[in-house]
Design goal:
8 helices; alpha/beta; FMN binding; two-stranded antiparallel sheet; Rossmann fold; six-stranded parallel sheet
């Protein structure tokens, strides 16, 4: 995959008038749904950027029509760039140089991690920052103080307490989802950090179905069309297809 042609500087996009959607995928087979999500959202006048964890990138290597190559994703309209961990420190850092995970946070009006793997859920709750995805999450403005509202954007791009929303759609094996530690982590996302309690995280809980591994039960990522509907509510855009609307919380 080719590197982004130019370094990202969030201030260069401050007044472009387009909502900025930062998407991310971590290590789950549900990563193969991200091309469908991006394609559906590309019909709107928004700007998108995608981060793939090292394990997530293994699911998009051109194996089949539903698993296109990462480079081919850049042919989708309004997808501006795709990043991997290697892009964080592609050159030795010097004083005054931009730091990618900070610029991505500043650039984004909203972020969604779909899928959020069991491993990444644990890292997120623990506050780890050992990858580009987790560094952006760790640096997220949880105070609504650092990142000012950009002009001419819908109010739905902020929570009721003025914070930029961070959506997560977990996907994992049924046994992983049923594990007691997962319940504790989900409680942090929903109760301590949840948008309904004044926080910034919207937890899009998984569903029950037969998983790719053959197990049947909870842990499957929410159906991709429903995820698109939820994102559209935050972007305050109308559906241009048959994806049903889901109320924003």
């Amino acid at each position: 995959m080719s590197r982004p042609s130019t370094a990202l500087r969030a201030s260069d996009h401050q007044n472009d008038g387009r909502p900025h959607l930062l998407l991310a995928c971590t290590g789950s087979v549900a990563t193969i749904k991200i091309p469908l999500i991006i394609q559906a959202l590309s019909k709107h006048d928004i700007s998108m950027r995608l981060i793939l964890s090292s394990s997530a990138s293994q699911f998009l290597q051109g194996q089949s029509a539903e698993q296109p190559s990462i480079s081919s994703l850049l042919e989708i309209p309004n997808l501006e760039a795709v990043y991997t961990d290697e892009d964080e420190w592609s050159q030795p850092w010097t004083r005054g140089a931009d730091i990618l995970h900070i610029e991505l946070r500043r650039w984004a009006d909203i972020m969604i991690i779909a899928p959020l793997s069991a491993n990444s859920m644990a890292k997120m709750v623990a506050g780890m920052a050992d990858s580009l995805v987790m560094s952006v999450v760790r640096a997220w403005d949880t105070t609504a103080i650092l990142d000012a509202r950009r002009p001419n954007l819908p109010s739905t791009l902020r929570t009721s307490t003025g914070k930029k929303p961070l959506l997560v759609a977990p996907a994992m094996n049924t046994a992983m989802w049923a594990h007691p530690v997962t319940h504790k982590q989900a409680a942090v996302l929903e109760q301590e950090w949840g948008v309904e309690t004044g926080g910034w995280v919207r937890h899009i809980r998984p569903v029950e179905k037969e998983l790719a591994c053959g197990d049947t039960g909870g842990g499957a990522m929410r159906e991709w069309k429903e995820i698109v509907s939820i994102i559209r509510q935050y972007l305050d855009v109308e559906a241009t297809d048959n994806v049903a609307s889901t109320k924003t919380k």
